[in-house]
Write a structure and sequence with these properties.
Helix content is 82%, strand content 0%. By secondary structure, it is mainly α. α5 packs antiparallel against α6. 28% of the residues are buried.
């Protein structure tokens, strides 16, 4: 992801993804949304790695707290709103646009709720919503992974592939996280029963 982001330094309008977005890159608002999204999302991805480290959380709680605030502010103020603007112009038509719109909205909502719960001292709910938020953050990676799998194994037309990965990239991650919650709950119930 760092290498993908570096393609756009300094500001470049003729590389990678932007090569197929020439019809909308002429809109000033799209340029602002795109570069805001790309430049902040890489920090959100990296920041999230440290936020889920138990050793950092225990040893340096202030690092966790500051990192969490940076993560939340970047998503709520820049990454999610800019992603929403980009969603309206997503490749693949209506279904891809719908997918990215839902993803941007859920990313905002999950991140906001994680912030709200920690402010209220509800650590368990905070953890769950941060996991959901980071699952959506990681969709930048899983989307590309699913794209690679489909391109190398199925050889579908590019826009059909994009329609599939626009959903698979984030729905898979959310289902994985929700599956973890179900597993944890069942494990907890089982442990209570054998005590």
């Amino acid at each position: 992801m760092i290498l993908i982001t570096l393609q756009y330094f300094p500001l470049r309008f003729d590389v990678a993804f932007l090569n197929i977005k020439q019809e909308v890159i002429s809109h000033g608002y799209y340029k602002i949304a795109f570069f805001s999204h790309v430049y902040t999302s890489i920090f959100v991805l990296i920041c999230g790695i440290f936020l889920f480290s138990k050793s950092i959380r225990r040893t340096w709680p202030m690092v966790h707290k500051i990192g969490g605030k940076v993560y939340v502010l970047l998503i709520l103020l820049i990454a999610s709103p800019s992603g929403l603007i980009m969603a309206f112009h997503a490749n693949g038509g209506f279904y891809s646009q719908l997918s990215f719109t839902l993803q941007a909205i859920l990313w905002f909502v999950f991140t906001y709720l994680a912030f709200k719960y920690i402010k209220n001292g509800e650590i368990s709910e905070h953890r769950k919503f941060m996991m959901r938020s980071y699952a959506l953050t990681l969709s930048a990676i899983s989307l590309r992974l699913f794209k690679w799998i489909i391109v190398t194994s199925l050889a579908l037309p590019p826009m059909d592939t994009y329609k599939i990965v626009s959903w698979a990239g984030w729905v898979f991650n959310i289902l994985l996280v929700e599956g973890c919650f179900i597993y944890e709950q069942r494990k907890l119930i089982f442990n209570r029963q054998i005590q």
